[in-house]
Description:
Layout: E1 8-10, H1 12-22, H2 28-35, H3 44-58, H4 67-76, E2 83-92, E3 95-104, E4 108-114, H5 131-135, E5 142-148, E6 153-159, H6 165-180
Parallel strand pairs: 1-3, 4-5
Antiparallel strand pairs: 2-3, 3-4, 5-6
Protein name: PD-(D/E)XK nuclease superfamily protein
Organism: Dyadobacter arcticus
Amino acid sequence: MKFNAVKYKLYPTLLNVFDRFEKGYIDKDELLNRVNRVPVLQTQAQRKGASFEEAVIKGIDEEMFDPDILDKVRALLPRPMLKTQVYCEYQLDDVLLYGYVDVLGRIVAADIKTTSNYQPGCYAISHQNFYLPALRVKGIRSLRYIITDFKEVYQEEYDHTLDLAHQIRQIKSFCEFLDENRSKITDLKIFGS
């Protein structure tokens, strides 16, 4: 199997920012700042989400969260948990998609999400779904999103039959944006260097 040379290195969080740009939630300058990795202050919600993940997986600062919510999330984690924070990469044409999945089990990978407004099915179009083909060689058959709004716990699970057409279109569109704005991009790692 012949792979194309990597022209772009992208990660799901950045692609999610591009999705927000396409929907008009942020402007071009904000998107370019994220592409260029201009430091931004972490929001309280982001800090709470990171702390929650640490509480679930490592038991750190568990007292900050509702024990029933922690128990419900833990009950949905794959057993046994083989590894946490597992690096994944998948090449799609000349794009290398990379990132970390929270938990790796024998046949299921899981990612913990926190939100203030959960919409059922919203993770079907997540760019993290490329972790599925990336983890196929490790025997992973499905990716489970475990989501909480800190009142309830939800889950979405996707397998290798998931249609990634929306994500592929968005990746191509983002690569066009990068090429059109190359002169404004200072973090050249995004171009595979």
